[in-house]
Amino acid sequence: MIIIDDLLTKSDVAQFRQQLSSVPFVDGKNTAMGMAAGVKNNGQADAQDSRVQQLANLLLSKLGNHPKVISAALPQRIFPPCFNRYSESQTYGYHVDAAIMRIPNTPDVLRSDMSMTIFLTDKDEYEGGELVIQTGFGEQKVKCDAGSAILYPSSSLHKVTPVTKGERIAAITWLQSMVSDQQMRETLFQLDQSIQSLVNAGTAEREQLDGLHHVYHNLVRKFSQV
Ligand code: NI
């Protein structure tokens, strides 16, 4: 699980919230596939609405350019984000995300390697509504402030606990990675982050950093499928 703290600024969040307050929302069950529909109880901004499509594209451009998203996901394709809203007592029970998704209005499909939630309401605006992800180390509960996002493997079971007070608004999307192997992707992320911290510390010699960059890019070259 990777938290991205600074994905959206406060003014970005305000803009998304303001726009979302005037678009139609539909029953989230409409877009859930198979067994997920039975446990999904939320509202989703109508993806047929041109204003919603514009918001999705705006968010997509912010995601696709963010260095930490690129480093963690090595994205090849990103699904147009969906905006959802959980009002009081709404919830989404345990489910797995579909492995293959058709990208709307294109002939393309996407393999979901990583799932992402982008929080558009602050933690203290609602109670409950935690994203819970099953991991090899037990259940991890996540609740971030508006503008922050979490990336996690799409292969994991996850749920959103019932909102007991207030309203939870978030965007969700899925990324197909150039590196489908989760362990290799995580290792590449660790290597890239370690190189970045050495660069930022300013203590390593140019030649040493070149050596590490060389290794990183050769690993990406070997393990990516493009
Ligand atoms: Ni899901």
Automatic annotation (TrEMBL):
<keyword id="KW-0479">Metal-binding</keyword>
<dbReference type="InterPro" id="IPR044862">
    <property type="entry name" value="Pro_4_hyd_alph_FE2OG_OXY"/>
</dbReference>
<keyword id="KW-0560">Oxidoreductase</keyword>
<dbReference type="GO" id="GO:0006879">
    <property type="term" value="P:intracellular iron ion homeostasis"/>
</dbReference>
<dbReference type="InterPro" id="IPR023550">
    <property type="entry name" value="PKHD_hydroxylase"/>
</dbReference>
<dbReference type="Pfam" id="PF13640">
    <property type="entry name" value="2OG-FeII_Oxy_3"/>
</dbReference>
<keyword id="KW-0847">Vitamin C</keyword>
<dbReference type="GO" id="GO:0005506">
    <property type="term" value="F:iron ion binding"/>
</dbReference>
<feature type="binding site">
    <location>
        <position position="168"/>
    </location>
    <ligand>
        <name>2-oxoglutarate</name>
    </ligand>
</feature>
<keyword id="KW-0408">Iron</keyword>
<dbReference type="Pfam" id="PF18331">
    <property type="entry name" value="PKHD_C"/>
</dbReference>
<protein>
    <submittedName>
        <fullName>Hydroxylase</fullName>
    </submittedName>
</protein>
<keyword id="KW-0223">Dioxygenase</keyword>
<feature type="binding site">
    <location>
        <position position="97"/>
    </location>
    <ligand>
        <name>Fe cation</name>
    </ligand>
</feature>
<dbReference type="InterPro" id="IPR006620">
    <property type="entry name" value="Pro_4_hyd_alph"/>
</dbReference>
<feature type="binding site">
    <location>
        <position position="95"/>
    </location>
    <ligand>
        <name>Fe cation</name>
    </ligand>
</feature>
<dbReference type="GO" id="GO:0006974">
    <property type="term" value="P:DNA damage response"/>
</dbReference>
<dbReference type="InterPro" id="IPR005123">
    <property type="entry name" value="Oxoglu/Fe-dep_dioxygenase_dom"/>
</dbReference>
<dbReference type="GO" id="GO:0031418">
    <property type="term" value="F:L-ascorbic acid binding"/>
</dbReference>
<feature type="domain" description="Fe2OG dioxygenase">
    <location>
        <begin position="77"/>
        <end position="177"/>
    </location>
</feature>
<feature type="binding site">
    <location>
        <position position="158"/>
    </location>
    <ligand>
        <name>Fe cation</name>
    </ligand>
</feature>
<dbReference type="GO" id="GO:0016706">
    <property type="term" value="F:2-oxoglutarate-dependent dioxygenase activity"/>
</dbReference>
<dbReference type="InterPro" id="IPR041097">
    <property type="entry name" value="PKHD_C"/>
</dbReference>
